[in-house]
Amino acid sequence: MELLPRSPGEFGSARYWDRFFRQRGQRPFEWYGAFPELCPVLHKYVRPRDKVLVVGCGNSELSEQMYDVGMCEDIVNIDISDAVIRQMQERSGSMRPKMSYLLMDMLQMDFPDAHFQVVLDKGTLDALLTDEEEATVAKVDQMFAEISRVLQVGGRYLCVSLAQAHVLKKAVEYFSQEGWVVRVHQVASSGDKQQFVLPVFVYVMTKFRKIPGSAPQILEICPEEQDKPMRMESTERLVAAVQDRQHYALLCNQISKTPCREQVSLDLCDKESGKPRYTLHVVDSSSVRPSRDNHFAIFIIPQGRETEWLFGTEEGRRQLAASAGFGRLLTVALHREQHYEGMAGIQRELSGKVMELAPPGLPARQQVPFLSVGGDIGVRTVRHCDSSPLSGEYVVEDVKGDGACYFRRLIFLRNRNVVQSEARLLASTPLPGQKKRRKDKKKASPAEPPGAIDKSYLCCEHHKAMVAGLCLLGGPDALPGELAVLVVGLGGGSLPLFVHDYFSQAHVAVVEIDPSMLEVATHWFGFSQGDRMQVHVSDGLDYVAKLAAEAPAQYDVVMFDVDSKDLTVGMSCPPPAFVEKPFLQKVKTVLKPEGVFVLNLVCRDARLKESVLATLRDVFPLLYARRIEGEVNEILFCQPCPEGRRDPAELGLRARALEGALRQPGRPWDSSYVLADMLQAVTIL
């Protein structure tokens, strides 16, 4: 401890370094970055005939190792410590005759202009720029000016650094403004030999003649020594990219020593585009007792299934890890913008990276299994991409589910892990007049899904519950007669389509604020308008307010299935304005006295949810709730008249009767859809 300075400012003091090297003796002192780690980067920028200047050489072995391996021999080392210069002259004088050690201050060097092809700095800038005080920054400016002066045009300043943000920012801004090309290399660590948790970087500043005017800055980063450089658009972006790699190193160090109490999430980005390619979740299971064979496994989530509860929620992933029987499970989600070469290709791509996230106690040379559902990576085909001013960027994609089923999904990319709308696709059938494919013909590709929409199938459990709520309507008949239904929120249109097709006397009005969604529903989800189905492109708030003023008590059923565009609120469905008391009173006005208001509520904020429920109880005397298992959704059935109260058992009977009426001969019905199951689990609030 006595070797450390009293204050960071002493790092620039010759007296401090004299004392340091006398006390340390002949033992080499390496700040960070051993020669084997630095060698691949140095080989790119140091040529055998280059004249190299090492500033702040200390008693590091770096120059000696460069000399001994034949990388370069014409090396001049300078330092402000007389003690270390004499020590190094004694150590290398006779063994390395072409290399010299000089007592010199790098802030005032005696060399002529343009004397060197390379200036090498290993930790010297980090030691000098200990703070951002005016005096410190002035010294750094002087150091940079001297380095610039002694370097030839085309020469390289190589700075080995831990890349603290203020150090990197200062170096990049100074030299880029001088017209130099700036490239930052991340040095590959050697595992156990690494002394620092943080990764080591090498700044490579290549000198060019300064062009008058505003020449474009060239800023690049190389994540690993063999990678092609990635262009950065600004100093801030370059600093942020370095910080991302530092945070990753800290994370790997942390989870390699202790189990994760909370799930850790991170993105691995494509080297070319910089866009996310894999999303990883590190899940440690306390219920699994690690043995030699169950420490660690990688689970590849099939494409398109990352939104399912088991893979897309924290609780689901925890259950997956426990059932898989591994102490640490690393789940890997694949991004729709990327192309993957099958499970084997993904395994080759990830095998090195995932080992950096291995748990403590993993036996050496332990084989880590890659797992998936059915052993493949699934199928995802993007059918349509677009954006709208209201909904932002969105995609329509076909994905393969369990077995041979395919599903079409609408995804808003601002919330890419949530399926906005979903429909099952029918198995391919020959068109009229079209012959079946002969057996000797080439079979259709398994990646090519069918195209027709199965309108009889409700993919979303909350839609099933919303339809089941129609049995709350009064009347002796199981199947209601003429119905006036208002649906706010179109999406892909599966909910209003189902009501239209299975309730043959229902007249359905749909309100959708985004005209783009009407186009998507029509072109990609089989939605169509007609005598009993009309879409009104309007703000639901305005539409309901106008109805309440002009045509009260008009609807038997009002359904809200509308998402919030504001992701900062803890409620993603509906927008908060839709559950404010004055507006809910307008909804009540629109309903017939025996009608039912059905609300899809998605709220993660417990206080906000309780406030919404309290407001609903104030407006509607009768309130039922149906929680959707494994989802955040909760379906609320609200009625204006308390006299219509029914217990869950009675609701189950009515739902069973309604299902019997809906199941008509020749009409398809999903056997997994049991209306009684939807309503027997309701809670009366």
UniProtKB/TrEMBL annotation:
GO cellular component, one term: cytoplasm
Top-level division of the source organism's lineage: Eukaryota
Domain called Methyltransferase: residue spans: 50-172
SUPFAM superfamilies per the UniProt record, alphabetical: S-adenosyl-L-methionine-dependent methyltransferases (SSF53335)
Sorted UniProt keywords: Methyltransferase, Multifunctional enzyme, Transferase
Name by which UniProt lists this protein: eEF1A lysine and N-terminal methyltransferase
Residue ranges, annotated region (Disordered): 429-449
